[in-house]
């Protein structure tokens, strides 16, 4: 197999259209999650762009539109045509690490996830990007923050506060000027919504006092040990449900990808 990638003087990449972001993000995702089906045929790439899982917003691109978008990405040096030995079907692959040579493999996975879904909380980003990143590279928020810091220095991502802040959200910075989405800086932690779990931990389950956000200061509230215990139990149950939900979503995504690959293999 061979590729048509040449090395002309390429323009800097500061923004991509929504179609370019979706096509590029899909190629990144499929390269990392279903390498046996990668590079992708035009049909498989179109199906991947329009799948209903792990995408926001949902799209309904036609093959002509995807093919035209691939042409633009090739002009930017972000994609190439791969010619198989049989020469019957063209396949397409991305060249993100050729254009962004300082990106690590985990950072490529993070970029792919942000291109596919846009702005999201850092906790959600870790669980979603982990499915694409090399094993062990994004197992903790600390590892994710380190990779994000490097991407921020390359002006590839933005955040609405320091990466160490609780609840911070991140997004890519490849929006077009007419769709620019600057992220408003968060207030300091002290102005955030009350964090009941921290308060309970700090007081050993005894009464806690905190202020809730509002136009004027609100009275402090007391929480006895029994209520604190119930809140802790509810938080634990909620966390377990969220983890189970993430696992189910990931299983559905993998099943959808397997079905798409099977259909392609059967010529459906």
Written description of the protein model:
With 268 residues, the chain is α+β, with helices and mostly antiparallel strands. Helix 1 crosses helix 2. The radius of gyration is 22 Å and the shape is globular. It has three domains: 98 residues, Winged helix-like DNA-binding domain superfamily/Winged helix DNA-binding domain (Arc Repressor Mutant, subunit A, Orthogonal Bundle), CATH 1.10.10.10; 75 residues, Orthogonal Bundle (Arc Repressor Mutant, subunit A); 57 residues, no CATH class. The strands form two sheets. The chain has a four-stranded antiparallel beta sheet with strand order 1-3-4-2. 47% of the residues lie in helices and 9% in strands. The two termini are 24 Å apart.
Short description:
This protein is of the alpha+beta class and 268 residues long.
- Gyration radius from CA atoms, angstroms: 22 Å
Reported by name, the CATH topology of the largest domain is Arc Repressor Mutant, subunit A
Lateral strand order in the biggest sheet? 1-3-4-2
Count the helices. How many?
A: 9
Helix content: 40-55%
How many individual β-strands? 7
Form type: globular
Poorly predicted regions are 1-6, 189-223
